[in-house]
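This follows on from our talk about sequence and fold. Go ahead and set the record down below:
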Amino acid sequence: MTRPISHIAFALAFAVAAFVMPRAALAFDTTAEYAVLMDYETGTILWGKNPDGQMHPASMSKLMTLDMLFGAIRDGSVDLDDDFKISENAWRKGGAASGSSTMFADLNTTVPVHAIIRGIIVQSGNDACIATAEALSGSESAFAEAMTERGKEIGLTNSNFTNSTGWPEEDHLMTPHDLATLARHLIMEFPEYYPIFKETDFTWNGIKQGNRNPALYLDPSVDGLKTGHTEASGYGLVASAKRGDQRLILVLNGLLSQKARADESVRLLDWGFRSFKHYKLFAAGTPIENAPVWQGTYGEVPLVSQSDIDVILSTDQRKNMKVSVVYQSPVAAPVEAGQRVGSIRIEAPDMPVREFPLVAGGAVERQGIFGRAMGALKHMIVGS
């Protein structure tokens, strides 16, 4: 007989973090029009302001151009020593003639891919982006279509690209959430290129330019990623910082000045690291609950997670956290080791419910005919 799904709540004893977040932090705000603070390890959005509002991302969308280029290098269609041509279109729209951010590549010259990458990351060169688009897709419009499709594949649910540079166009839009997701993807999928984001200057064609990311100079824990600014977008930034074992990703946009962008990036990262901590709840393979087994050679089977269960919470959320195990009781024999049996549910204020699968930590065979008959008789007599 199958019983209804059970919710078995239990208390967990953990050491309380030394810093206690004040209640005033619950009303934390920023002068930015858009903001997201993401935990890198779990992808959890810790705090946000208009996190899913579509906005003009300016040069921050060059992170998507870089993803396309890194992917082409990985699949072998491009080599770091290959040369990309600076066409008249790339030069006029993104070079010295354009008056926009540029790596100052000369008309009809070629630039090796390893320099193109730094031209985009460090110098925010529009010429480097357009040259990349033309080399990979033939035209910038075709490249933008490919960017949009690729964005969907990596989880950018509210982004649309119409160019490679972030130049303001009506339908060239991203959300802070998507930008944070993209930054996390780049750090995770292309670690071999990520150190370039921390380089503070790059020289091409005899012209040395500094990295525009102000957080790199103000906070030694910051190691990327990209700034953006147009009249339509205001001042924006995608930053990532690592302190100890914890990495945070911050997205800001719609600020009114370079100073505000610098001040807010440092202030929000400091607040994030103070306010949110990782809690290792259960190690992979550790028995979390013993589930009764119906007509098995053993009366119970341990339920375990196949991966570590790790959450990031504020101190207030940690104090009010509720953990429960959900499964159908009893579990019918036979049970295979690793068989999905239930889930563990983590609940805390102002946080979406998180669930992790639980599997059988061992195998339980089904009883023989005599054992099953005796078990059924016992159930009829005592109801268990």
